[in-house]
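Appendix C: a fully annotated inverse folding record. The material below is reproduced so that readers can follow the format used throughout the book. The structure is listed first as C-alpha cells, followed by the designed sequence.
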C-alpha cells in the first residue's frame, strides 16, 4: 500500500510538472516558439458606422499616433464613410502546448480631436493605441491618453468583445489573417473616459451613447520556420557552452 501511495504521488507530480511546462509564452516580433518565428504583423481597427456618425456629430478629426496609421475618408457632404487605424504587431502570447493564440498586442494607434461646438463639446482630445486583445477573456486593453485632466492610462480595460472569438493557431503562414474580432462594447469606465477626454456635452454624449459596437479588429501576421543559419548559430552557442563547462571542470 505504501508503494502504491508513493506511485500515485509520483504520477501526480509528473502530471503537474507536465501541466506547468505548458505555459503562456510571450513571443515578441522576431522571437520564436516551438520552432516557429513571429516575423511581423499588423492589426487594424475599423470604426463602425455608428461610431463614425458620432464623430460626425462632434466634427471630430482623426490622426495617426506613435507609428500607427489612421485612415479617414469622407463623402461630398463631409460625412465619414470609412475610418480605421492600423498598428504593427508587437507581440503575441501563445499557449506552448496547443500553439493557440492567447492574446495579441500592437504598438501605435490614432488620436481624435474634438473642437469647441455648442451643445456638443467644450473641446478636447483622445488617443487610443497599443491595443492588447485578450482572446481568452474577451477583453481589449489599450493605452488611453486624454485631455481635460485624464492624462495617460496604461493597459486600460476599454472594451468587452461580445461576439464569439476563435483562438487561431500559431502556424507557418505569410500575411496570414487571424479571426476577425467584432462586437466591441465599451466599458462604463471607458465611456466616462471618452466623454471627459473629448469634453462632450449633452449632444455629444448622447451621440456616443448610441454606439453599441465600436468596430472590428482584423490582424494579419507572418510566421515562419527559422532559417538554417539560425539553427547553426544556436548549435554554435550550445557547443560554446559545453566547451566552457568542460574547461571549468578541468580547471
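Designed amino acids, in order:
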Amino acid at each position: 500500500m505504501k508503494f502504491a501511495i508513493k506511485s500515485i504521488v509520483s504520477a501526480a507530480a509528473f502530471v503537474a510538472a507536465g501541466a506547468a511546462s505548458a505555459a503562456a509564452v510571450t513571443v515578441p516580433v522576431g522571437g520564436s516558439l516551438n520552432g516557429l518565428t513571429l516575423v511581423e504583423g499588423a492589426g487594424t481597427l475599423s470604426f463602425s458606422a455608428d461610431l463614425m456618425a458620432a464623430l460626425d456629430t462632434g466634427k471630430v478629426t482623426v490622426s495617426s499616433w506613435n507609428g500607427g496609421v489612421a485612415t479617414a475618408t469622407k463623402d461630398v457632404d463631409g460625412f465619414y464613410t470609412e475610418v480605421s487605424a492600423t498598428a504593427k504587431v508587437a507581440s503575441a502570447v501563445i499557449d506552448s502546448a496547443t500553439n493557440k493564440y492567447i492574446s495579441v498586442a500592437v504598438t501605435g494607434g490614432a488620436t481624435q480631436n474634438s473642437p469647441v461646438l455648442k451643445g456638443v463639446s467644450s473641446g478636447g482630445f483622445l488617443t487610443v493605441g497599443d491595443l492588447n486583445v485578450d482572446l481568452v477573456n474577451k477583453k481589449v486593453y489599450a493605452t488611453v491618453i486624454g485631455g481635460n485632466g485624464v492624462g495617460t492610462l496604461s493597459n486600460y480595460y476599454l472594451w468587452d468583445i461580445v461576439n464569439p472569438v476563435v483562438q487561431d493557431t500559431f502556424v507557418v503562414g505569410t500575411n496570414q489573417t487571424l479571426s476577425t474580432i467584432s462586437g466591441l462594447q465599451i466599458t462604463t469606465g471607458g465611456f466616462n473616459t471618452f466623454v471627459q477626454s473629448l469634453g462632450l456635452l449633452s449632444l455629444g454624449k448622447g451621440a456616443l451613447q448610441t454606439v453599441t459596437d465600436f468596430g472590428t479588429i482584423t490582424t494579419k501576421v507572418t510566421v515562419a520556420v527559422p532559417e538554417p543559419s539560425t539553427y547553426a548559430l544556436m548549435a554554435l552557442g550550445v557547443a560554446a557552452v559545453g566547451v566552457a563547462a568542460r574547461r571549468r571542470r578541468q580547471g
